[in-house]
Write a structure and sequence with these properties.
The protein has 497 residues and is α/β, with parallel strands linked by helices. The protein has two domains: 273 residues, Aldehyde Dehydrogenase, Chain A, domain 1; 197 residues, Aldehyde Dehydrogenase, Chain A, domain 2 (3-Layer(aba) Sandwich). It is 38% helix and 20% strand. A seven-stranded mixed beta sheet has the order 14-15-16-13-12-18-19, sandwiched between helices. A six-stranded mixed beta sheet has the order 9-8-7-10-11-21, sandwiched between helices. The protein has a three-stranded antiparallel beta sheet with strand order 5-6-22, with no helix packed on it. The structure holds NADP nicotinamide-adenine-dinucleotide phosphate (NAP) and magnesium ion.
């Protein structure tokens, strides 16, 4: 398959292996080892990358500690805000290149990755605002005399280890950096091995923006690099986004020095369509709630509950919509859905397609890997809709992380809330209806971190996002997020000496 883009190939990809970024410098891994990152649309090697491991994490954590103990954490909030604003400008200016890196590395269509510009800028500017507006409080102490003063100080928590998955590389890297920069912490970021490139480019932009050396370090590598970060006694907090399975390992590994933790984990979200919904909007909305980013989104609405009177018509229309999605070369501007990120992910998703059929489900759209024509070398699975699904089938319970929806019929609201909650996960959820009662009763009834009503997958820098149950704990975005990057110190002053 020939790249069909007229956009410039990123200059960042030229030259030898991509190096780690520690203390403001490009450095090779101490072991000298490298690994390859693959273009999932072609199965071919995209770049050679230094393979950071425990010893590189150690160097990076020490650099981050020095930077934290240097002037940075004492910078005035307005100065941190200004540097974040400069970074926002630089990300905006270089966003085409960052989007292109993600399209080549992840396989997400360029038509989608270029749209990340708006969110990237909005995140950096929102958190720049939080840098200057976050504060402690004064408290009227119950027990101190009148001539006294009691207040709290918000102090940065220290060195943060940020560990990211592969499904939204640049957006996720910026999301992790924002509270670090706004609070005066420092960070060692470990991107996913499948998509290491754009975070390395972002680190260069951080230096160009005037962020001091050592404040932002990027160590790319495999899972052992993440594990070393989770264990390292010099790390004060881990901010993890990834699978529930790895999240558990990190909780255990972080016990040594009782790190602060935030966990953004997996999901199997219920998307509930009532018979009174606006069908035209709900069909597209419910379909894209699953198929966006080839289904590789933690909050994807993969359990599609449809009220019985409209079930047959609705699933037919979602199937028709799915068949109309243009799957293809991610560099083609008209492509709406690209491949899965890796051959491992392809095997995992195809395994679930098989299991679904074996357990009695029927694919009304998709259902098998694309093996013919120009896409045969890439990791392409078309949008798939399963019907004849029972709640206890594996495709209705386990996170597939591919473009696979399971349609389930329901009769009434109490039943659907109970079935929606019958999951170990609790990340997202959706409801499509024109009835206020349905909307708000479902919103209150679902035990999930987000409920979208007549929309889905909307993320906003000001709105907290995160999980209930095994989808994790802690929130990203909004005021709650930045609080996790501060310690609170209480100061009690007796004045009448
Ligand atoms: P993953 O396998 O859990 O990996 C996530 C990150 O952890 C990667 O950087 C990985 O490195 C690293 N890692 C692996 N083993 C580790 C260990 N023992 N200790 C510390 N770090 C370790 O997840 P993924 O396959 O990249 O991403 C898919 C998962 O992420 C899905 O479950 C999805 O639901 C979840 N996710 C959640 C959210 C959310 O906000 N809740 C958002 C996006 C994705 P390697 O890349 O080298 O393996
Ligand atoms: Mg992985």
């Amino acid at each position: 398959m020939q790249p069909s883009s007229t956009r410039p190939f990123p200059a960042f990809l030229e030259g030898g292996p991509k190096l780690l970024y520690i203390d403001g410098k490009h450095v090779p891994a101490l072991s000298g080892k490298t690994f390859q990152t693959i273009n999932p649309a072609t199965g071919k090697v995209l770049a050679e990358v230094s393979q950071g491991a425990a010893e590189d994490i150690d160097v990076a954590v020490k650099a981050a500690r020095r930077a934290f103990e240097g002037p940075w954490s004492k910078w005035r909030p307005a100065d941190r805000q200004q540097v974040m604003s400069r970074l926002a400008d630089l990300v905006d200016r270089h966003h085409d290149e960052l989007a292109m890196l993600d399209t080549l590395d992840l396989g997400a269509p360029i038509s989608r990755t270029i749209l990340g510009r708006k969110r990237a800028g909005a995140l950096l500017r929102y958190y720049g605002g939080l840098a200057t507006s976050t504060h402690g409080e004064t408290i009227n102490s119950s027990f101190m005399p009148h001539d006294s003063l009691t207040y709290t100080l918000k102090e940065p928590v220290g060195v943060v280890g940020a560990i990211n998955p592969w499904n939204g590389p640049i957006g996720m890297a910026i999301w992790k950096l924002c509270p670090v920069l706004a609070s005066g912490c420092t960070v060692v970021l470990k991107p996913a091995e499948q998509t290491p490139l754009s975070a390395l480019r972002l680190a260069e932009l951080c230096i160009e923006a005037g962020i001091p050396d050592g404040v932002v370090n990027v160590v790319v590598g495999l899972g052992d690099a993440g594990a070393a970060l989770a264990e390292h006694p010099g790390v004060d907090k881990i901010a993890f986004t990834g699978s529930t399975e790895v999240g558990r390992k990190i909780v255990r590994a972080s016990a040594g020095n009782l790190k602060r933790l935030s966990m953004e984990l997996g999901g199997k979200s219920a998307n509930i369509v009532f018979a009174d919904a606006n069908m035209d909007i709900a069909v597209a909305g419910a379909a894209m709630a699953v198929y966006m980013n080839s289904g590789q989104i933690c909050s994807a609405g993969t359990r599609m509950f449809v009220q019985r009177p409209i079930y047959d018509e609705f699933v037919e229309r979602v199937a028709a919509f799915a068949k109309g999605i243009r799957v293809g070369d991610p560099l083609d501007e008209s492509t709406q859905m690209g491949p899965l990120v890796s051959s491992e992910q392809l095997d995992r998703v195809c395994g679930y397609l098989q299991v679904g059929k074996e357990q009695g489900a029927r694919a009304l759209a998709g259902g098998a890997r694309l093996t013919e024509g120009a896409l045969a070398d890439g990791y392409f699975v078309p949008p798939t809709l399963f019907v004849d699904v029972a709640d206890d089938m594996r495709i209705a319970r386990e996170e597939i992380f591919g473009p696979v929806a399971a349609a389930l019929a329901f009769d009434d609201i109490d039943e659907v809330i109970a079935r929606g909650n019958d999951s170990e996960y609790g990340l997202g959820g959706g409801v499509w209806t024109r009835d206020l009662n349905n909307a708000h009763l479902v919103a209150k009834g679902l035990r999930t971190g987000t409920v979208w009503v007549n929309c889905y997958q909307v993320l906003d820098p000001a709105v907290p996002f995160g999980g209930y149950k095994m989808s994790g704990f802690g929130r990203e975005s909004g005021n709650e997020h930045i609080q996790e990057y501060f310690e609170t110190k209480a100061v009690m002053v007796k004045l009448d000496q």
